[in-house]
Amino acid sequence: MVYKALLIAVDQYLNTSPLPNTVNDVSEIKRLLLEPPSFFKKENVEVFQGNIAKRNILHSALTSFFEDASPNDILFLFWAGHGFLHNNEGYFVPFDGDAYNPEDSMIKMTDVRDLIDHTIASTVLAFFDTCHSGAIARNIQHEMVRGLEVKGSGKVLIAACTSNQWAWDRNGHGAFTDYLIRGLEGEAADANGEIDVYNLYSYVSKKVAEEFKDQTPVMKSTLTGKPLLLKRVVKREGQSFGTSPAIETKIVNSSGAYFWLGDLTCEYDEYREPKAGTYELVLKNPDSKTERTLKLMQQNSGQYALSVRNFADMVTIENIRVESQKEDTTVTITLVSLGDYSSFTFPEMSINLMGKRLSADDIAMLRVRRILFGEELPRYDHSSVLLESMIINPSNAKIQVISNLLRILKEKGYTMEQIRGKVVEQLILTGTLQEIEDLTFVVENGVIKKVCLQGYRPKYYANVEPTKIEINESVNI
């Protein structure tokens, strides 16, 4: 019995947006497959990524992988990249895929399914983290019902979503692959530390469904016989499966005493609004670098984004007053609001995409998820390109949309309170939300595990109440 793996990460494209997270996906899958104790040997694990992931190369690799197999081989296929649906036909998109000519430039999901059907290998395990990947599972003999035990040899296809759904990305991985990795690392292991294909699917499917209501993994199989093991997990000394180390939990539901003014962030001692549109921040004994930065900002006469508590506005620095008494220095910053750029706030547009109407509020939710988690959308036709533009270039924005803000700021070493303040700035000054009712991070051992948001969209009409935006998201940032 020989275990062989073909891992495909289509991270670069000639004709559409790149998917750099797919390289992370494949690197982690490869590491986990080869990590001892393993059934896979390095020489039997092949990886395709970058500009070598062209249609002809991938088609040839897939054909030889399945047609040259021996009866006792166990084949593991993983594909991460864009998926495309055209005339109800699902396609995997290679590096040189062209949405205007999918039949000649892409790989039909049914062609890959046929290769799996006809191979003489005893067992095939195939995982697809692409949009519309559920199309590959059509017409397989048996659909797995959750709750049944998967046994023995045969063929299993697990897709990230149904044929008419998108597969979401976040936290440096596709969501489907993220849970696949966690499952292979041991979270899908049984009491003996062993992972069979059913336990893995059950774990991944449950986790993805809990996180995304509009992404449903699909499993089809023809398995028979005893359970098929994917990987054994070795217990560390003194540990057993089902136990966890001590967890220190922190709830961050305010920005504390931190403020942001442009790229400057530090703590204030007092904050007040002496009159409408005027704000004062009082700093006690700020360091010399902060003082110099503030003076340079005032000299430049620039316009800056201000974020404090649950509030954000565009301001100019009217005055900086420094008072020194013995060993104490007090700096008072007076800021003046720029007000609205125009006397009228434009209602945002809706759009029709793949036969589905997305309202301005739907697009705002996509923008919130882009800002918080960096979620990308596949782009193939004119309507999806327009949708992408509406997400990153909102009509009433006062600042540029920043994607994947939580991860970017955390990697730069900012505190959770500082990160929260910057998120407030992004959500309000991009015109996405007008008011934030609640923004809470649940942090475990320094890792953001949950993000809760409740806020209201701008009110465009006096007789129409603003829409409430809510997020309750499990993450790992």
From TrEMBL:
InterPro entries attached to this UniProt entry: Caspase-like_dom_sf, Metacaspase, Pept_C14_caspase
Which SUPFAM superfamilies does the UniProt entry name for this protein? Caspase-like (SSF52129)
Q: Which GO terms describe its biological process?
A: proteolysis
Which terms does the record give in the GO molecular function aspect?
cysteine-type endopeptidase activity
Give the GO cellular component terms, alphabetically.
cytoplasm
User: Which Pfam families does the record associate with it?
Assistant: Peptidase_C14 (PF00656)
Q: What is this protein called?
A: Peptidase C14 caspase domain-containing protein
Classification from the root reads: Bacteria, Bacillati, Bacillota, Bacilli, Bacillales
Q: Where is the Peptidase C14 caspase domain?
A: 4-226
